[in-house]
Amino acid sequence: MTVFARRARAFAGRLHPELTLVSYTLLAHLEDSGGCLAKDLAARYGLDKSTVSRQVRALEQLGFLERRSAPEDHRAQMLHLTPAGTDILAQVTESRHAAVAERLAGWGDADVAGFAELLIRYNAGPETSGDGSITQEYSNPDITETVR
Question: Could you tell me which of 35, 36, 34, 11 has the C-alpha nearest to residue 24?
Answer without folding.
Answer: 11
